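re: ur question from earlier - yeah i can do the single chain one, its not a big deal. heres the input i used so u can compare w yours
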Amino acid sequence: MNLVNLIPELLGDFLRAPEIHLDDHKVSVFEKIYGRASNEGDLIIKYDCEFPKYEFLSYLIENRNVLLHGSNEKKIRFLVPLRRSTDLRGVGNLNAVYACSDGIWPIFFAVWNRDYYGSTTNSCFRASDTDGRLRKFYSFLIAPDSKCFERDRVADKKCWTDGMIYILPRAPFTQLVDDAGNPLEEWISADPVPVLAKLPVTPQDFLFLNDVRIRDDAPPVTQVSQLKIDPNVYDSYMGKYEILPDLILNLEKREGCLIAQVPGFPTVKMRPESETVYRLEGIDGQAVFACDGTGKVAQLMFFVGGKGLPVRKIE
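and the output i got, formated as tokens:
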């Protein structure tokens, strides 16, 4: 499935990457800044210009054959394969060094305070916008773990911290693809990777800081998990649903949860609000099942960005 076929309704709640305009002056400034770190042997990049850091990082990705990794840790010299994740995708839980080919996404991982807010749903992917241009889109949601409810629940500032962007050589990495073979912005290396340079960042360097959804008022995980759905209900929902002839939605059951996957889109966990109504985690949307008298799905309706999108089950 070609990403240019993604329909605008499915992109309504995602954040669109800004266009970056490079001129000779900006290129000269970026080259000088990066050259100082490389030539002087100083890993810390001294960023002393007026241009946003995400523009500098995006320039490096496109012109310096590098990838990026964001972290709260500030003293890493080598990144080693190690993964502790609750990612529901198989490609998200490999024993590998992870990096990305995007200048905005890693800043989120650098400034998101994992000591306070323990879980996130986030994504970065390419799709056509309403003008038919291939652009990058993002979504960001952070939620507390159960320990946070024993502490101060006014967490807007505690969600964020200063962090570090690590600039890595691209050579050891392999680009990941989704189930349909579409290339992702994520890359992995099974071997340790040396750090070429590192750029300190603050929450103010994250372009979408004010657009991150923060579930500070969400109930504790123990309360959410009290809603139990009969496994036979999930079994009846699983299968393929046709959005367009060449755009198919897959519903799967993983670890007792319903998972929605449209090739080219991030995987979305469906949290039950009832047997027929499900909240799409990380998206301002719902999925509502309508069943016939035999329990078979007659229709599935998605409500995303305030618009209804009917789909039919094909197998």
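Residues 31 and 60 are 9 Å apart (CA to CA). not sure if urs matches, ping me
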